[in-house]
């Protein structure tokens, strides 16, 4: 529905068009706004030593989402991970998926949490710094809290992150990722998963 208003102005006649928006359009707009806020929350989340290794992508196109779902189902069978197929089925109703990754970059604290005495020992094996995992968890939780604040159904899923890494959706150097699918439906597709 389009409504035209004519504003009487002695200098210029202005026509204002107001277009009625349906729930579908409003919800789609909400996904985008919330996704942007989630990316900002992940970026500004506290990080070890203030070093930002976080990367964020948004999957909102059907071709990438379908590739993701197909690969999740494939890996479910190959790696005997039934949860991957369950997660793939639940994200079909998702209009947007936020994926947060972290570059593998030892924190240079020589803390030993990773199992090596020094960060250099870890670097030689191309292992994962415990602090990179902690930073990813904090960033993903910060992003999910934004979705929760705006009543957008979501769930943090490692399966999405793992498959995004397999599909090489991130820049080189990202070694761990978590996905957060978003949904605005009458019932969350991420709650009673089977």
Number of domains: 1
Radius of gyration: 21 Å
CATH superfamily: NADH Oxidase
Q: What's the CATH class label?
A: Alpha Beta
Note the gap between the termini.
41 Å
The quaternary state of the protein chains shown equals single chain
Q: Low-confidence runs (pLDDT<50, min 5 residues)?
A: none
Could you name the CATH topology?
NADH Oxidase
Map the helices and strands.
Blueprint: E1 2-7, E2 14-19, H1 23-44, E3 54-59, H2 62-78, H3 82-90, E4 96-103, H4 119-125, H5 130-149, E5 153-154, H6 158-166, E6 174-183
Helix pairs in contact: 1-5, 2-3, 2-6
Describe the structure.
- About 45% of the residues lie in helices and about 20% in strands.
- It is an alpha+beta fold.
- It has a single domain, classed as NADH Oxidase (3-Layer(aba) Sandwich).
- The protein has a 4-stranded antiparallel beta sheet with strand order 3-4-6-5, sandwiched between helices. The chain has a two-stranded antiparallel ribbon with strand order 1-2.
- Helix 1 runs antiparallel to helix 5, helix 2 runs antiparallel to helix 3 and helix 2 crosses helix 6.
- The model has no long low-confidence stretch (mean pLDDT about 90).
